[in-house]
From TrEMBL, chain A:
PANTHER family: ACYL-COA DEHYDROGENASE, ACYL-COA DEHYDROGENASE FADE28. Gene3D superfamilies: Acyl-CoA dehydrogenase/oxidase, N-terminal domain, Butyryl-CoA Dehydrogenase, subunit A, domain 2, Butyryl-CoA Dehydrogenase, subunit A, domain 3. This is Alkylation response protein AidB-like acyl-CoA dehydrogenase. The keyword Flavoprotein applies. CDD domains: ACAD. It comes from Thermocatellispora tengchongensis. Belongs to the acyl-CoA dehydrogenase family. The lineage of its organism: Bacteria, Bacillati, Actinomycetota, Actinomycetes, Streptosporangiales. Pfam families: Acyl-CoA_dh_1 (PF00441), Acyl-CoA_dh_N (PF02771).
TrEMBL record, chain B:
The keyword Oxidoreductase applies. It comes from Thermocatellispora tengchongensis. Residues 130-221 form the Acyl-CoA oxidase/dehydrogenase middle domain. Belongs to the acyl-CoA dehydrogenase family. Residues 233-390 form the Acyl-CoA dehydrogenase/oxidase C-terminal domain. Its cofactor is FAD. InterPro entries: Acyl-CoA_Oxase/DH_mid-dom (IPR006091), Acyl-CoA_Oxase/DH_mid-dom_sf (IPR046373), AcylCo_DH-like_C (IPR036250), AcylCo_DH/oxidase_C (IPR009075), AcylCoA_DH/ox_N (IPR013786), AcylCoA_DH/ox_N_sf (IPR037069), AcylCoA_DH/oxidase_NM_dom_sf (IPR009100), Mycobact_Acyl-CoA_DH (IPR052161). This is Alkylation response protein AidB-like acyl-CoA dehydrogenase. GO terms for molecular function: flavin adenine dinucleotide binding; oxidoreductase activity, acting on the CH-CH group of donors.
Length: 374, 412
């Protein structure tokens, strides 16, 4: 819904939309079976359209339509969010953000970057731990130095696309501080267990690391990985918020149309002021969600240093406001809004899931208070 | 600026930074008088004069009338640089961001020559005479009459809620000039001196103890034909422009201001001040509330910037100004709520016999709805968004197409 897109961005947007509508219409999402992941070939073709290249500099095989990768990624996330798309857009791009941010500071991961950009490989960030809230820099999983490398012990959970991932970016505690490791899923000692997910199109798993041996070259950047973790978090949050904005546009449009078509007492429900005023509020919040998401994307585009505040602002606002809008849209639909056959719940699932992951709005509000030096 | 080429925003910004540092007082070093005292207005006029002499007044007003003729981007750069300095914020609303833009859009050449420069030099304050005791939302249903006597207009009636009118020199006053036609077609806008003969002005005490609002009674006030802004009986078109500027200003999106924000008639503590004063800064629940308020006010500013850009670029109709107005009001309500909640029990009873910071949070809460009524109520804005932006059916209006003198009126 950004009115100021360049012609190239519009083409990029349209191509993504066509591809998604053709391959994964909402009906297919609704029927997505609890066991199945996404179609790997579909993802490879998405990668060919540039979905994994945006955060990667050209010398590492990437590139983006406008040259402003984070903004283009947000644009794509809006399109995919409008279709509640499956696939590891957030997972893979978040890992790429970390690999690129750490590039040149530690072991070389350009081969992994290349395989992710091409869509041959899928990666995901293993950051949450069982029973714990968002605390990316306080991992309980340990990486102890052992025989020229490290030995990883611990459990990560709520790992997106865990069952499909070829590579895990694992945030771990080392004697030198928090560090991250890129660990192939096939490494001995790594096991994945499926976890129930609210979002029908997105699956999560718990990943257990039992005495997993990796060599030095698996480390991403250096210990004391705060800035890289921050970058990953910011990119994940921008993707989340943009996805939700795309979904909200679709649902709001669907609901205003419904209000014009649905009649009670001989007039459209859109003619009742009690509902018109709620639509006006929702329209305002929708604009506000877009405004703050765009501001966050621009700030992350410029660099991570000053971006924490606008990013937490966006998550704090969009995280809760999106659900207020969606639930009111359910209410205005009446009973049909609660049925499995209706599309509303697909959006509500995605938005609820995005609200709770990578820090809840409440977590980000406390962070804003920290940033305001209260 | 060199002949005909516009100065770049960056160069303008740097020049503004240096000038501000050399010429304007820092905000923390000055203790401004409350906005409802005349002393504060003298100060504001003085600061505006300084801006004018320094070449930084009226950034988006055309150069031919005394402004700088630059773009909103220049304005934003200046506003950012001016943060932390004492600015003539009292002049922002309604003088600089509502009344003067309306004169620029709709006034005669003579009005523009006479008033734009005078305001920018700090010599004139403008106010709005719109609302009446009988109602503000149904503005076009107002009762104040203006009748022609030869070529002089004679005004009779009453206005109310006119912000800072006691400090004003001129007012935009909407009056009925033809009661025999449907309400919108019989109105005319006048630009009138506020202290002329026949005008009685009183100050209205508000719940927070301020007296910023005024009420006026007109008893055969005489105005020349040249006082008409726009066309005779074309006052609704002028008022529509004025309300557009008002909603833009209330949402924080006006490009016509001197410095950021507007001056409250009573300086209130922010929720952060309240948390510190209450010794509750370490309470996670308090931090969460404050984070929510911080996020919402930031989003309100981001929304105003986005909507203003979209209206300027033709992507949204002017009616979309109501979006930023609604968002601005929401952020203000939340600010008052959070301050009151953080103050806890101390919002109601102070330690001593002065309200103190925490008591101020309680007082601020009493005026919570101010930002949801001023500039037209949020209910009116919601009607505008749903009807004009979303195209939903219009409300039934019993007075549509009915000559005004046959419309039923209330008792209140
Ligand atoms: C801070 C502040 C500054 C102001 N400054 C000025 C000023 O400088 N000059 C000036 O002229 N006025 C000013 N006003 C007045 C303001 O414009 C009016 O208060 C406002 O327009 C509402 O009018 P009213 O108070 O007469 O309420 P009414 O119009 O009587 O409305 C009463 C209530 O009914 C609601 N309502 C009315 N009609 C409808 C409808 N059709 N659908 C749904 N709800 C409806 C309203 O929203 C409101 O909640 C100011 C007010 C404030 C609070």
């Amino acid at each position: 819904m950004d009115p100021e897109l360049s012609p190239d961005q519009k083409l990029f947007e349209a191509a993504a939309k066509d591809f998604l509508d053709k391959e994964y219409p909402l009906d297919r999402i609704r029927r997505m079976d609890a066991g199945a992941g996404f179609d790997r070939d579909w993802w490879r073709r998405g990668a060919e359209l540039g979905w994994t290249a945006m955060l990667v500099p050209e010398e590492l095989g990437g590139g983006s339509v406008s040259g402003e990768g984070v903004r283009d990624l947000a644009l794509l996330a809006e399109v995919l969010g409008a279709g509640v798309a499956p696939g590891p857009l957030l997972a893979t791009n978040t890992v790429l953000a970390g690999l690129v941010a750490a590039h040149g500071t530690g072991p070389d991961h350009s081969a992994a970057i290349e395989s992710l950009v091409s869509g041959e490989a899928v990666a995901t960030w293993a950051v949450y731990e069982p029973g714990r809230q968002w605390a990316p820099l306080e991992p309980g999983l340990t990486a102890r130095p052992a025989e020229g490398g490290f030995r990883l012990d611990g459990v990560k959970d709520r790992v997106e696309a865990a069952g499909d991932a070829d590579l895990f970016l694992v945030t771990a505690a080392t004697p030198q501080g928090t560090a991250q490791f890129l660990v192939p899923a096939a490494t001995p000692g790594v096991t994945v267990e499926r976890q129930w997910s609210l979002d029908l199109a997105r699956h999560h798993g718990a990943v257990r690391f039992d005495g997993v041996r990796v060599d030095e070259a698996a480390m991403v950047g250096r210990p004391g990985a705060g800035e890289v973790v921050e970058r990953q978090t910011q990119v994940a949050l921008v993707i989340q918020c943009a996805e939700v904005c795309g979904g909200l546009d679709r649902v709001f449009e669907m609901t205003t149309q419904w209000a014009r078509d649905r009649y009670t007492f001989g007039r459209p429900i859109a003619s009742y002021q009690a509902l018109k005023h709620r639509f006006a509020d929702m329209r305002t919040w929708l604009e506000a969600c877009h405004a703050t998401t765009a501001a966050a994307a621009s700030a992350v585009q410029e660099g991570s240093a000053g971006a924490a505040e606008p990013v937490s602002t966006a998550k704090s606002y969009v995280g809760d406001r999106s659900l207020a809008i969606l639930q009111d849209c359910v209410q205005i639909h009446g009973g049909i809004g609660l049925t499995w056959e209706h599309d509303l719940h697909l959006y509500l699932r995605r938005a609820t899931s995005n609200r709770s992951l990578y820090g809840t709005p409440q977590d980000h509000r406390r962070r804003l208070a920290d940033l305001a030096s209260l | 600026m060199t002949d005909g080429t516009t100065e770049s925003v960056e160069s303008f910004r740097l020049r503004a930074r240096a000038w501000l540092a050399a010429n304007m007082p820092r905000a923390e070093e000055s203790a401004p008088a409350p906005g409802d005292e005349l002393e504060a207005w003298h100060r504001a006029r003085e600061l505006q004069r300084k801006l004018y002499e320094g070449g930084f007044a009226g950034i988006c007003y055309p150069a031919e009338y005394g402004g700088l003729g630059l773009t909103p981007a220049h304005q934003r750069a200046f506003t950012e640089e001016a943060d932390g300095y004492e600015m003539p914020l009292l002049l922002n609303i309604p003088t600089l961001s509502i009344c003067l833009p309306t004169i620029l859009d709709m006034g005669s050449e003579e009005h523009k020559r006479e008033h734009i420069g005078a305001v920018l030099r700090g010599e004139e304050v403008l106010v709005q005479f719109l609302s009446e005791p009988s109602g503000g939302s149904d503005l076009a249903g107002l009762l104040t009459r203006a009748e022609l006597d030869g070529d002089t207009w004679i005004l009779n009636g009453a206005k109310t809620w006119s912000s800072s009118a006691y400090a004003g020199d001129y007012a935009l006053c909407l009056a009925r000039t033809d009661p025999t036609v449907p309400k919108h077609h019989g109105l005319t806008m006048f630009l009138m001196p506020t202290k002329g003969e026949g005008i009685t002005m009183n100050r209205v005490a508000m719940v927070d103890g301020t007296a910023e609002f005024c009420e006026e009674f007109f008893d055969n006030v005489r105005l020349p034909a040249s006082a008409v802004v726009g066309e005779v009986n074309g006052g609704w078109a002028v008022a529509t422009r004025q309300l557009y500027h008002e909603r833009t200003a209330m949402g924080g999106g006006s490009p016509y201001v001197s410095g950021r924000g507007f001056a409250p008639s009573r300086k209130l503590p922010t929720p952060i001040d309240v948390a510190r004063a209450a010794g509750r800064a370490g309470d996670p629940e308090v931090r969460e509330l404050i984070g929510e308020w911080l996020a919402t006010s930031t989003v309100s500013g981001q929304t105003a910037a986005r909507v203003t850009r979209a209206i300027a670029g033709g992507h949204l109709p002017p009616a979309a100004a109501s979006l930023m107005r609604l968002m601005g009001a929401e952020a203000m309500r939340l600010e008052r709520d959070v301050a009151m909640r953080v103050a806890g029990a101390c919002a109601a009873v102070a330690a001593g016999d002065e309200p103190g910071v925490l008591g101020e949070a309680g007082i601020g809460y009493l005026m919570r709805q101010g930002s949801s009524l001023g500039g037209g109520s949020v209910e009116m804005s919601r009607n505008i968004v749903s009807e004009r932006l979303l195209g939903m059916p219009r409300e039934y209006a019993a007075d549509r197409g009915v000559p005004f003198n046959q419309v039923r009126r209330g008792r209140a």
